[in-house]
Hints:
Layout: E1 6-10, E2 16-21, H1 22-30, E3 34-45, E4 50-59, H2 74-80, E5 95-99, E6 114-118, H3 119-125, H4 130-133, H5 148-154
Parallel strand pairs: 1-4
Antiparallel strand pairs: 1-2, 3-4, 5-6
Bound molecules: zinc ion (ZN).
Amino acid sequence: MNIDKKVLLLNNSYEPIQIIGGKKAIIMLLLEKVDLIEKTNSFICSEKLKLSFPSVIKLKKYVFIKIKNIPLTRKNILSRDNNVCQYCGKNSKKMTIDHVIPKDKSGKDTWTNLVSACSKCNIKKGNYLLSQINMKLLNKPKKPSHIYHMQKLVKSGNALWKPYLFMNK
Ligand SMILES: [Zn+2]
């Protein structure tokens, strides 16, 4: 049993707070600070105790959380765009960041103006506006919400988290 397996921590209001390590989650359960909402098929066993390994836990008391903005970095832009060129849809290891409205046409460094682009598309686009050279964006670039990193983790497993991260279609 891997005790480092990640656990989704919810506020008392069911609002997702953060992803924590399994060890911390178990300590919170044993201290009765949280309720077990979803469990995995694994167990933690000791002489006195048999406990289902948690997947989602909820705080017994509501805590006020100040939501942090996701920093606008090259890494986070590439992650938002899944390393896919937002013009041609190709996936490349050598991805660049493109200003949709070029800097010399007063384009800003913002979530909605920066996208990942392969170097070929970036060179083709140059300092033009999309309308000038007949190129289109595959997705409208958006600022990711604070639960975005948690949603990314769901794609690599943890289907139990989906209803709590607004991912049930
Ligand atoms: Zn491209």
